């Protein structure tokens, strides 16, 4: 696999910020005895990682806009290109020392996501995708799973927590999906859930109330692996609505059929 100059920029930035997060993860266990310590520490780690990503990406591509979870929108002179970045997707996992978190970088060009990198520094899994060039995990080409019936599938979802989301709707959705599938999972990092769909580890995934930085890189990852991504309405944009359903064409369609009437 030959990486383009653009993807090389994204990978280099993700790996540098990843080294910082991995060091910080090593400190988490020492802070678990404190109620305030871990949360404050993780917030600082999150901000530090975003600034590293901002510095590296803007140095390599001056003028590109930048949208980050921590720093919000930073306008660039180039209005056609925008980085959409989550420096630490899976913050709650990270806070508890659970190695299921990622740096997610998507590049939006004229409204379309054209490249994505999702990197989990805890296990050094690097997912990359570029429009028209496929999706890869550590140099291995990715394809979505080929299962055609929900009863054979393992599906991931998001679960709203205290103070967030519609808990009753979530319970209705899970009830409908649970009785139709081989397994239901909740891993806690949207970008990695989508990467797992691209890799065929999961057959599908849905979640509501996400932000652009949660899904930008995942959208192109799934599509370049041959999958389908939409909002819960089926014809809407996950990037715009914050609701996502993905899988191979058949499974994604089946999930939409179940979920759309519930919302």
CATH topology of the largest domain: Fructose-1,6-Bisphosphatase, Chain A, domain 1
CATH architecture of the largest domain: 2-Layer Sandwich
Which outline best applies?
A: globular
Strand content: 25-35%
Instruction: State the assembly state of the protein chains.
Output: single chain
Radius of gyration (CA) equals 18 Å
Q: Determine and state the CATH class of the largest domain.
A: Alpha Beta
Tally of DSSP β-strands: 13
How would you characterize this protein structure?
The protein is of the alpha+beta class. It has 2 domains: 5-141, Fructose-1,6-Bisphosphatase, subunit A, domain 1 (Fructose-1,6-Bisphosphatase, Chain A, domain 1); 150-262, D-Maltodextrin-Binding Protein, domain 2. The protein contains 8 helices and 13 strands. It has helices spanning 5-31, 37-60, 91-95, 167-178, 190-198, 212-224, 238-241, 249-259; strands at residues 64-68, 72-74, 78-89, 102-109, 112-120, 125-130, 134-137, 140-141, 154-157, 183-185, 204-207, 228-230, 244-247. Strands 2-1-3-4-5-6-7-8 form an 8-stranded mixed beta sheet, with helices on both faces. The chain has a 5-stranded mixed beta sheet with strand order 10-9-11-13-12, sandwiched between helices. Helix 1 packs antiparallel against helix 2 (37-60) and helix 5 runs parallel beside helix 6 (212-224).
In a few lines, what is going on in this structure?
This protein is an alpha+beta fold and 263 residues long.
List the defining traits of the structure above:
8 helices, 2 domains, 13 strands, single chain, alpha+beta, D-Maltodextrin-Binding Protein, domain 2, 263 residues
């Amino acid at each position: 696999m030959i990486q383009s100059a653009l993807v090389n920029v994204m990978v280099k930035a993700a790996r540098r910020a990843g080294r910082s997060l991995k060091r910080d993860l090593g400190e988490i266990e020492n802070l678990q005895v404190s109620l305030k310590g871990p949360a404050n520490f993780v917030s600082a780690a999150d901000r530090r990682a975003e600034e590293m990503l901002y510095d590296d990406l803007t140095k390599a591509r001056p003028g590109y806009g930048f949208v980050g979870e921590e720093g919000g929108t930073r306008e660039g002179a180039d209005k056609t290109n925008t980085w959409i970045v989550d420096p630490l997707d899976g913050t709650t996992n990270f806070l508890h020392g659970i190695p299921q978190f990622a740096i997610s970088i998507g590049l939006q060009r004229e409204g379309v996501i054209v490249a994505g990198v999702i990197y989990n520094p805890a296990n050094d899994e690097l997912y990359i995708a570029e429009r028209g060039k496929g999706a890869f995990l550590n140099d291995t080409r990715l394809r979505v799973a080929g299962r055609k019936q929900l009863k054979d599938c393992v599906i991931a979802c998001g679960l709203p927590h205290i103070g967030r989301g519609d808990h009753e709707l979530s319970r209705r959705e899970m009830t409908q999906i649970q009785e139709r599938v081989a397994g239901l999972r909740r891993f806690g990092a949207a970008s990695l859930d989508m990467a797992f769909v691209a890799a065929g580890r999961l057959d599908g995934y849905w979640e509501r109330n996400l932000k652009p930085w949660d899904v930008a890189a995942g959208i192109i990852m799934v599509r370049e692996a041959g999958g389908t991504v939409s909002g819960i309405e089926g014809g809407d944009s996950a990037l715009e609505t914050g609701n996502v359903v993905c899988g191979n064409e058949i499974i994604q369609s089946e999930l939409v059929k179940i979920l759309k009437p519930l919302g």
